[in-house]
Amino acid sequence: MHHAFSHQNPYPSCRSATYARRGMIAASQPQAAQVGRDILAAGGNAVDAAIATAAALTVVEPTGNGIGGDAFALVWMQDDDGSGRLHGLNASGVSPQALTREAVTRDGHDHMPLYGWTPVTVPGTPSAWAALSERFGQLPFEDLLAPAILLAREGFPVSPAISEQWQRAEKRFRPVFTDPATQAWFSLFTPEGHAPQPGDLFKSERHAITLESLAQSRCESFYRGALAEKIDAFSRATGGYLRATDLAAHQVEWVDPISVTYRGVDVWEIPPNGQGIVALMGLNIMQGFEDLHARDDITVLHRQCEAIKLAYADGHAFVTHAEHMTTRVEDLLSQQYAAHRRREITGSALDPTPGTPHAGGTVYLATADENGNMVSFIQSNYHNFGSGVVIPDTGIALHNRGHGFSLQADHVNVVAPGKKTFHTIIPGFLTRDGRALGPFGVMGGFMQPQGHMQVVMNLLDFGLNPQAALDAPRWQWIGGRRISVEHGYPLHLLREMTRRGHEVDYAFDLTGFGRGQIILRDPDTGVLCGGTEPRTDSAIAVL
Question: InterPro entries recorded for this chain (predicted)?
Answer without folding.
Answer: GGT-like_enzyme, GGT_ssub_C, Ntn_hydrolases_N
